[in-house]
Amino acid sequence: MQYSLVFFLSVSLAFAGDFMTQMEYAKMLYENPRGIGCVHCHGPKGEGKVLARFKEKGKEKEIVAPSLHGLSKERFAKGILASKSVMPTYFLTNDEIESLYYFVTNIQNNDKGK
């Protein structure tokens, strides 16, 4: 009995890596990393969007979540780790940041990310 349990667990773990593709995992993180997803502010493909418009001293102003395209990996990670003002702090691991960067750099060429 113990041997069959060990065999079953080892076989299960051997195939666990195929449970999700890298892009599926990255998309999942992008849509909901820690309660609120990047998608809500940066758009479904990281294109960025206007979050709010308001008037201040008679002038119209906007709060904008920037596009994530064209950023270096270092700048992307710095933006996540040094969150300020509207950007929430997520406390992501380096692997999660790598996955999110993979997503935003590959989303335009991948139909699964829609």
TrEMBL record:
Residues 1-16 form the signal peptide. Residues 29-106 form the Cytochrome c domain. Keywords: Heme, Iron, Metal-binding, Signal. This is C-type cytochrome.
